[in-house]
Amino acid sequence: MQIREAKIEDMHTIYMMGYDVWGGDLSVEDYIKECSQSIKYQKGTWFLLQDDVTGKILSSCVIYDLELKEMRAKGIGSIATRAEDRRKGNASELVRGVIKEIEHTENCSTFFLYSDIGTVFYEKLGFLRFPVQNYLQSTCMYLSKDRHVNMESIEPPPYF
Q1: Predicted local distance difference test score (pLDDT) of residue 70
Q2: How far apart are the two ends of the chain, measured CA to CA in Å?
Q3: Alpha-carbon span 141 to 138, nearest angstrom
Q4: Please, what is the average pLDDT of the chain?
């Protein structure tokens, strides 16, 4: 398996990974158009997990630079896996690999995400519930190796 930054030609496949969950009543064409024009999606850097043998893209996520005055941090969003490839560890491998790469190349050790699927999956990856929750539908979670950061003393980042 290989983790790499997504290319423009990967984006249709990446967007379609979330269609069954986030597409709602949109047609595939309208959903792809909405994703490709999303300012939010354009602000981040997309990463994917790809099978080395088949070339198949298995999972994807987007990484955002968070502007927090208390610390340097990244946001992880839109974690998705092809429906037929779910529950095989692909998203876990991608998230762990992306975090490891960012820790190494960007010297960043604090990550946030908003979970719409409950907390168990992310807790298995080491994420903790943020002490303050501002959204009813999503749970803010964090992972930090920075021992100088007191999450009790800061506001959660806005939903990204």
Answers
A1: 76
A2: 28
A3: 9
A4: 91
Q: Look at residue 159 in the predicted model and tell me its pLDDT.
A: 86
**Strands 110-115 vs 72-81: parallel, antiparallel or unpaired:** parallel
Enumerate the β-bridge partners of residue 74.
Answer: 65, 111
Rounded distance, CA 112 to CA 125, Å? 12
Give 107-120 as a DSSP string: ---EEEEEESS-SH
Nearest by Cα to 144 from 74, 79, 78, 69: 74
Which fold is adopted by the domain 2-153? Aminopeptidase (3.40.630)
The b-or-e profile of 21-38 (16+ CB within 10 A means b, else e) is eebeeeeeeebbeebeee
DSSP at 158: P
Compute the distance between CA of residue 107 and CA of residue 71 in angstroms, rounded to an integer. 12
The Cα–Cα gap between 101 and 114 comes to 21
Instruction: Please state, in angstroms and rounded to a whole number, the distance separating the CA atoms of residues 9 and 49.
Output: 15
Identify residue 145 by its one-letter amino acid code.
K
